[in-house]
Write a structure and sequence with these properties.
The complex is a heterodimer. By secondary structure, chain A is an all-beta fold. Chain A has one domain (4-109): Immunoglobulin-like (Sandwich). In chain A, 0% of the residues lie in helices and 58% in strands. Chain A has no helices and eleven strands. In chain A, strands 2, 4, 5, 9, 10 and 11 form a six-stranded mixed β-sheet that branches. A five-stranded antiparallel β-sheet of chain A has the order 1-3-8-7-6, with no helix packed on it. In chain A, a hairpin with a 5-residue loop joins strand 4 and strand 5. The relative contact order of chain A is 0.33. Chain B has a single domain (4-111), classed as Immunoglobulins (Immunoglobulin-like), CATH 2.60.40.10. Chain B has no helices and eleven strands. In chain B, the strands form two sheets. In chain B, strands 2, 4, 5, 6, 9, 10 and 11 form a seven-stranded mixed β-sheet that branches. A four-stranded antiparallel β-sheet of chain B has the order 1-3-8-7, with no helix packed on it. Chain B is globular and about 40 Å long. The chains are: A mainly beta, B mainly beta. The A-B interface holds A 31, 33, 35, 37, 41-45, 48, 86, 88, 90, 92, 95-100, 102-103, 105 and B 31, 33, 40-45, 48, 50, 55-56, 90, 96-106.
């Protein structure tokens, strides 16, 4: 059974600190997505990673993909309160469905 | 202009009732999906339609019946609602072969 596991599931951090969220998956896939969800809201697409070694950056967030290790990371640099949300990775299966990780709830404290 | 829309946003109903959720997308996509997000925020795909044809049915009870009248619409009808059906249901769309999915605002279903 395909598994997508995020680590940690909950992260409380101080503003200004750096941290990394990990996403491990158990099957071959060259595509992975990161989404953000605010409480009571929909999922917002953050990054689309389409090949091994892909790295994307937007503001204080940077995502990378290592398909050989079946690992993606979402790095947060100098966190600010506005980044508080739940972050999901999702593995693409044959371009027809996404399998989501459990989500990582990030809480950034002043 | 809303890309993927769902109605209603909230749905509160009694056990045993039948209810429907509607989804529409104006992105020109050809594939639409239903996902269920449970109380622990876990997201799981339920169904996928491509050009009105069912392509994914993820071991969902027969009480759930999706219908796609055209490639811009995907509805979800649920019969004999149970307490365990309480969740947030998200509709999404994409272009087949592209992979990236765009999500609607969600419908929060509460079964009492």
């Amino acid at each position: 059974e395909l598994k997508v596991e995020q680590n940690p599931l909950f992260l409380s951090m101080q503003e200004g600190k750096n941290y990394t969220i990990y996403c491990n998956y158990s099957t071959t896939s060259d595509r992975l997505y990161w989404y953000r969800q605010d409480p009571g809201k929909s999922l917002e697409s953050l990054f689309v990673l389409l090949s091994n070694g892909a790295v994307k950056q937007e503001g204080r967030l940077m995502a990378s993909l290592d398909t050989k290790a079946r690992l993606s990371t979402l790095h947060i640099t100098a966190a600010v309160h506005d980044l508080s949300a739940t972050y999901f990775c999702a593995v693409d299966i044959l371009l027809i469905k996404l399998i989501f990780g459990q989500g990582t709830t990030l809480q950034v404290k002043p | 202009d809303t890309a993927v829309s769902q109605t209603p946003k909230y749905l509160v109903t009694q056990m045993g009732n039948d209810k429907s959720i509607k989804c529409e997308q104006n992105l020109g996509h050809d594939t639409m999906y239903w996902y269920k997000q449970d109380s622990k925020k876990f997201l799981k795909i339920m169904f996928s339609y491509n050009n009105k044809e069912l392509i994914i049915n993820e071991t969902v009870p027969n009480r759930f019946s999706p219908k796609s009248p055209d490639k811009a619409h995907l509805n979800l009808h649920i019969n004999s609602l149970e307490l365990g059906d309480s969740a947030v249901y998200f509709c999404a769309s994409s272009l087949i072969g592209d992979g990236e999915q765009f999500f609607g605002p969600g419908t929060r279903l509460t079964v009492l």
